[in-house]
Specification:
Helix content: 25-40%
Number of strands: 13
Structural class: alpha/beta
Strand content: 5-15%
CATH architecture: Alpha-Beta Complex
Oligomer: single chain
Number of domains: 1
Number of helices: 22
CATH topology: Amidase signature (AS) enzymes
CATH superfamily: Amidase signature (AS) domain
Strand order of the largest sheet: 1-3-2-6-8-7-12-13-11-9-10
């Protein structure tokens, strides 16, 4: 009996030791000296890449990760390594199959991403400065999804961790637009698209960095910089390649596999640019397809949110999850379109695409056109028309002068005291080193612009006509899309109100990503996604950044 008691005692002691050993030593986020790196950055040939700082002076990532301290203490590197082949670079249907077969759970999927974000963002040599906040109840929500699994979830967003650009309202995290002036913008209502995502079972993992005020704030400043989040970096070349803007964090986090998908916003190139430069799929839909209610604006004329993903299938699933008619958004359309119904056809039978002749000097573009021809695409070479973009900045100035105060009065938290661009300029001037180290020239220009609303309407009409003139060839030649590179023609598509889809195309000799961008007719998103899917399957161009594997 005494022997049995001793055995029981020692078994308990050993079990206790195993329990202690299973706990991981907490990873601590530490500020590091960046003086040498900043000095080196001053030699960059691109002036926008001559950074003044890297790290956020506002965020303490230890506090951001505090809610997950216990769960992550039991999630080991071995757990992470075991889940990696199931999750890394996998599309939503594959992840959903793993959940259905029991190889994965929504909780494990979420823990994997939390661990991965912490692993890289706490490493001074690999951090991307991409995260602004994380949803403190995300693991509870993931466990709830596991308890209520859907039978047919394969092509849905259900249980999938999604990141949002931090100009999109959420009830459980602040919405800052990267600006110190909005760090207390808490307890807002969810943006319309966020509510739709939650209704369809998505897990809102967190908010990501962006070019402050969606890159309509400072002139010639770095892409992906905000006073709240610091300097976002490109995983394909930290401090070497630009991140694209303004949805920099959305592009970077998906390239580095920090979530299943992300939502960005675009006025002119802010989805296509970071998607292209981070080798992911980005869709800028036609204005009206997705609601803008609850999103910090630049321009009610041109703004739209859009999906940013690793694959075209995921892109279609994410846009499906965000859609819905919003009576509060005057541009919102009643769309019955299912963007992935019955799947995609990967062949190019009957597809006719326009090629912009001046771009054929780009070797990757030229090679890509050759692959498409070989695959059966009918190619029409186009000599583009000259158009005028006079008044474009004026459009943004006057729209923001009125649209930002509208957001602040209707959609910001009640405790936010700023009511106008003038208030923000004054607030920033009180501590410009922290709040506006690169200046606020574009906000100053908004205040100085005296264009009337009547004059603005004439400018909008003229710009739209110019954009439509450039893209008229879509109708004239009965094209399914025009092929561009990266965000080269995003401004034209924006003013003409045409959708764009960008899909990884390859990499420059330097290693910088390059993407093929499809410009379609208004409300042709389904067609663009199907063509994009065929192109993706033909080329399989996307590669995971080598330091983030």
């Amino acid at each position: 009996m005494k022997k049995l008691l001793y055995l029981t005692f020692f078994s308990s002691l050993i079990a206790g030791c195993q329990y202690i050993n299973e706990q991981q030593i907490p990873i601590v986020f530490k500020k590091y000296s960046e003086a040498t790196a900043i000095q080196k950055q001053q030699n960059h040939e691109n002036k926008r890449m001559q950074f003044k700082l890297f790290q956020s002076k506002y965020i303490d990532m230890n506090k951001v990760f505090k809610p997950f301290e216990k769960e992550l203490s039991y999630f080991s590197e071995e757990n992470y390594a075991a889940l990696k082949p199931l999750i890394l670079e996998q599309d939503i249907p594959t992840l959903q199959k793993h959940v259905k077969t029991g190889r994965l759970s929504y909780e494990k999927l979420t823990l994997f991403y939390l661990y991965r974000i912490r692993k890289f963002e706490s490493d001074s040599l690999k951090s991307l400065n991409s995260i602004i906040s994380l949803n403190p109840t995300i693991l509870e929500e993931a466990r709830a999804r596991d308890k209520n699994k859907k039978i047919n979830a394969e092509f849905t967003i259900y249980g999938m961790p999604v990141l949002l650009k931090d100009n999109i309202n959420t009830k459980d995290m602040p919405t800052t637009a990267g600006a110190i002036a909005l760090v207390e913008n808490k307890n807002t209502q969810d943006a319309f698209i966020v509510q739709k995502l939650r209704d369809r079972g998505a897990l809102i993992l967190g908010k990501v960095n962006l070019s402050e005020w969606a890159y309509f704030f400072c002139s010639g400043c770095p892409l992906g910089y905000s006073a709240v989040g610091g300097q976002t970096l490109n995983p394909y070349g930290r401090g070497i390649f630009e991140t694209g803007g303004s949805s920099a964090g959305s592009g970077v986090t998906i390239a580095a596999n920090f979530a299943v998908a992300a939502v960005g916003t675009e006025t002119s190139g802010s989805i296509t640019s970071p998607s292209s430069l981070n080798s992911i799929v980005g869709l800028k839909p036609t204005i009206g397809v997705l609601s803008r209610t609850g999103i910090v604006p630049i321009s009610s004329t041109l703004d739209t949110p859009g999906p940013m993903t690793k694959s075209v299938i995921d892109n279609a699933i994410l846009i499906n999850a965000m859609r819905g008619f919003d009576k509060r958004d005057t541009a919102s359309k009643k769309m019955e379109q299912d963007y992935f119904q019955n799947g995609f056809n990967s062949n190019f039978k009957g597809i006719k695409l326009g090629v912009l002749k001046p771009l054929l000097s780009d070797s990757i573009y030229q090679t890509t056109i050759g692959k498409l021809k070989k695959a059966g695409v009918v190619i029409v070479e186009i000599i583009p028309l000259e158009i005028s973009f006079d008044g474009f900045i004026t459009l943004l100035n006057i729209d923001m002068k009125y649209d930002l105060p509208s957001y602040l009065s209707k959609n910001a938290a009640k405790n936010i005291s700023i009511t106008s661009v003038a208030d923000i300029v004054l607030f920033n001037s009180q501590d410009s080193i922290l709040r506006a180290p690169y200046g606020q020239q574009l906000f100053d220009a908004i205040l100085a612009d005296n264009t009337t609303l009547g004059e603005l309407e004439l400018i909008k009409s003229k710009l739209r006509r110019e954009g439509e003139k450039y893209l008229q060839v879509l109708k004239d030649e009965k094209l399914d899309a025009i092929l561009s590179i990266n965000n080269y023609h995003s401004g034209i598509a924006a003013v003409a109100k045409h959708p764009t889809l960008t899909v990884p195309m390859g990499y420059r000799e330097s290693g910088e990503p390059a993407s093929l961008t499809f410009i379609g007719a208004p409300f042709s998103e389904r067609k663009l996604l199907e063509i994009g899917y065929g192109f993706e399957q033909l080329t399989k161009a996307r590669k995971l950044p080598k330091n983030y594997q």
